[in-house]
């Protein structure tokens, strides 16, 4: 079955449901039509059987006197109603072996000719005709000890056709209702079955969506999944293994390169400080910038590896005050004042203290570099959020989407770095399950960086 709607084509549950229900309805309809054709084809034989069954019912209803002579007929209710209600289409009589009529149904002018022509014991199933109707006649014997009697039942083809038409309509209604009920029950059953069968696949998809660069060691468990999907899951896990290996090699190279560059840069700086060459100060500034970039590369490599973190109960506000004290000289050089929460404030949470220090240092340092002279960088707690706000020019709209990308820098002129400070902050926040965001302050100028720590507890 082909589906034109692209959403249906992509939905396995809908495809299986529609295909199964459609096949079931088609099968039931085919069976119904087959039964209808067979019933129509065998209508003649069924009509003869019906007339003969009626004759047998009449024979069983005959009452005899003590001498064994038939004197009355105690008809079943359905036959009595048929003979009373349809006198033109049905009649019966009881005859002796000579053909003399002993008992007959109520006289009917329309059946006079047929009754007159029912002489002697006719053959079973003989079709008798009168001027208007065709009649089907059945004769059954009643054997008694001293004589044999005969019951003759005559039924018009018109009555048989009416019954057949009614049966056909009833059969059609039964087929339609059966199709609808079967489709409903089958649809509910297959929906529940598919939901149960596809649940492991949904669980595997959820597990796959949670795999990131920080947990590349995770794998998808193929045990609960159908065997047909095992090769796909095995290939996916194998791809994850290769990706993890490549990522580890990249991170190890980054950390090793950064570590190996620290010593040569320190030696070069010492040589320049001891020498008396032109542009000595400019060279020292370049060396300091390179050292800062190497230091950030090392921090980035460490922040990207979750196993490097040691999570323990910490007071985030105490760490924040240590960062403010650490950056006081930098703030003085830029003529910027840092406004921090009081020491009596406590924000308790589980975190890696060193990573938290790096996160806060990079954010406040970034605010100092972008703040104008004689301005204030405000750091304060708001519920479970830490807000760091400067009074600088703010963030350009085009820079907002790239703010936390690696190696991207706004190049403001106040500093030129490798563009890794905010990337390191993002990696640390993700490793802790925190949310790091930035926006422009309003209505006053400046930018606001927010670190949301949902598991923390503020005490003032």
UniProtKB/TrEMBL annotation:
Transmembrane segments: 12-39, 171-194
EC number in record: 2.7.13.3
GO MF entry, a single one: ATP binding
PANTHER family: SENSOR HISTIDINE KINASE TRCS (PTHR45436:SF5), SENSOR HISTIDINE KINASE YKOH (PTHR45436)
PROSITE patterns: HAMP, HIS_KIN
The organism of origin for this protein: Achromobacter seleniivolatilans
Keyword Protein transport: no
Keywords recorded for this protein, A-Z: ATP-binding, Kinase, Membrane, Nucleotide-binding, Phosphoprotein, Plasmid, Transferase, Transmembrane, Transmembrane helix, Two-component regulatory system
Domain Histidine kinase, residue spans: 256-457
Reactions this protein catalyses: ATP + protein L-histidine = ADP + protein N-phospho-L-histidine
Keyword Acetylation among record annotations: no
Pfam families, per the entry: HAMP, HATPase_c, HisKA
Record protein name field: histidine kinase
Start and end residues of each HAMP domain: 195-248
Compartment(s) of residence: Membrane
């Amino acid at each position: 079955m082909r589906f034109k709607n692209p959403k249906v084509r992509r939905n396995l549950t809908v495809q299986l449901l529609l295909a199964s229900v459609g096949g079931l309805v088609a099968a039931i309809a085919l069976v119904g039509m087959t039964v209808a054709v067979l019933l129509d084809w065998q209508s003649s034989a069924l009509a003869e059987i019906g007339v003969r069954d009626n004759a047998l019912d009449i024979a069983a209803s005959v009452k005899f006197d003590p001498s064994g002579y038939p004197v009355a007929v105690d008809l079943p209710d359905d036959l009595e109603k048929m003979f009373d209600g349809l006198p033109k289409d049905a009649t019966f009589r009881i005859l002796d072996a000579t053909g003399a009529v002993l008992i007959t149904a109520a006289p009917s002018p329309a059946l006079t000719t047929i009754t007159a022509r029912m002489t002697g014991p006719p053959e079973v199933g003989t079709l008798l005709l009168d001027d208007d109707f065709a009649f089907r006649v059945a004769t059954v014997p009643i054997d008694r000890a001293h004589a044999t009697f005969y019951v003759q039942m005559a039924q018009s083809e018109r009555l048989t056709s009416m019954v057949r038409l009614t049966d056909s309509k009833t059969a059609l209604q039964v087929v339609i209702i059966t199709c609808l009920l079967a489709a409903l029950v089958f649809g509910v059953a297959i929906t529940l079955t598919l939901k149960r069968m596809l649940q492991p696949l949904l669980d595997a998809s959820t597990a796959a969506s949670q795999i990131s660069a920080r947990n590349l060691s995770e794998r998808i468990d193929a045990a609960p999944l159908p065997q047909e999907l095992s090769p796909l899951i095995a290939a996916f896990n194998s791809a994850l293994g290769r990706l993890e290996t490549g990522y580890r090699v990249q991170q190890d190279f980054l950390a090793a390169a950064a570590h190996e560059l620290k010593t040569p840069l320190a030696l070069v700086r010492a040589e320049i400080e001891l020498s008396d060459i032109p542009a000595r100060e400019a060279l020292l500034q370049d060396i300091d910038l390179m050292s800062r970039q190497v230091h950030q590369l090392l921090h980035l490599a460490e922040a990207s590896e979750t196993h490097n973190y040691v999570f323990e109960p910490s007071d985030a506000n105490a760490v924040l005050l240590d960062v403010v004290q650490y950056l006081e000289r930098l703030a003085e050089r830029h003529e910027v004042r840092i406004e921090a929460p009081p020491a009596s404030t406590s924000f308790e949470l589980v975190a890696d203290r060193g990573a938290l220090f790096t996160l806060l240092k990079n954010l406040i340092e970034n605010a100092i570099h972008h703040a104008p002279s004689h301005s204030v960088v405000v750091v304060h707690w708001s519920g479970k959020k830490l807000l760091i706000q400067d009074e600088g020019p703010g963030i350009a709209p085009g820079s907002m989407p790239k703010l936390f990308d690696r190696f991207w820098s706004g190049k403001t002129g106040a500093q030129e770095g490798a563009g890794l400070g905010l990337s390191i902050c993002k990696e640390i926040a993700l490793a802790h399950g925190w949310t790091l965001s930035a926006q422009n302050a309003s209505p006053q100028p400046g930018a606001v960086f927010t670190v949301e720590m949902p598991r923390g507890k503020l005490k003032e």
